[in-house]
Amino acid sequence: MKPETTLRIGIDIDGTVTEPSSIVPMMNESFGKHLRYEDCFAYDLAKVYNITEEAFQDWLSKHGERLYNEAPVHGTADSVLRGWYPHHRLIYISAREARHRDVTLNWFSRYHIPFHEVDLIGSHDKLAAAKKWQVDLFLEDRLENALQLSEELQIPILLFDTPYNQGSLPALIHRVHSWEQVEELVRTFAMNRPPLAEKSL
User: Fold this and answer.
1) What does the record give as the active site (predicted)?
2) 194: pLDDT confidence band, cut at 50, 70 and 90?
3) Fewer CB within 10 A of the end CB, N or C, for the chain?
4) Three-state DSSP state, 91
5) Measured distance CA(160)–CA(50) in Å, rounded
6) Among 1-5, 14-18, 127-131, 171-175, which is the least confidently predicted range?
7) What is the CATH topology of the domain spanning 8-20+74-198?
8) Nearby residues of 142 by Cβ (< 8 Å), 6 or more positions away
9) Is 102 designated active site?
10) Bridge partner list, 91
11) How far apart are CA 24 and CA 40, in angstroms?
């Protein structure tokens, strides 16, 4: 059997490594709602909660650190990532702001989640960062990111299934329902990629 080769794996954090529903109870608490995770039909929670974008950004500014500190791990993400660490480059690219680096790294440490790079870019536009780190594939929950990255970089995207990213997908975007499924797909990709040394670094 052909051995696996090292991949540079781009990984979103929120809704990918963290449980995607974790923001809902906090939003309900703050805005007096009783919405369920299944009611989150759009990634833009300002639309879901019928508030202004400014109100949502203000909320995130005030509560972001608590959200990032309290979010549970998404499924078996921690154990899968620990299994990948000796074999692949784990590059986390997140829309979180740089000021949340400490709470992010503390959370990683608490759950023993390994990393090679953590790039908090403060924007949903991850294209430049993905190019910078030359990722071979990307793990994401936001449909708009998945579409942009797959089209511009022509790399596989593993899109975690959520209520807010439904719709038909192009061939390079694979809808996934668990970290176990992701682990199997990454193993397949690794078996079919040229060794890292054969690529320009």
Assistant:
1) 12, 14
2) low
3) N
4) strand
5) 25
6) 1-5
7) Rossmann fold (3.40.50)
8) 12, 15, 43, 124, 165
9) no
10) 10, 117
11) 9
Three-class SS of 131-181: HHCCCCEEEECCHHHHHHHHHHHCCCEEEECCHHHCCCCCCCEEEECCHHH
E strand map for 53-141: 89-94, 117-120, 137-140
Q: Distance between CA 139 and CA 192 in Å, rounded? A: 18
Select from 173, 118, 120 the least CA-distant residue to 148.
173
Q: Give counts: helices (H), strands (E), the chain.
A: 8, 6
Contacts of residue 193, Cβ cutoff 8 Å, sequence gap at least 6 = 5, 7, 136
For residue range 81-118, list pLDDT tens digits in order: 999 999 999 999 999 999 999 999 999 999 999 999 99
Catalytic residue among 14, 78, 136, 141: 14
pTM, rounded to two decimals: 0.93
Measured between its terminal Cα atoms, the distance across the chain in Å is: 26
Q: Is the pLDDT of residue 127 over 60?
A: yes
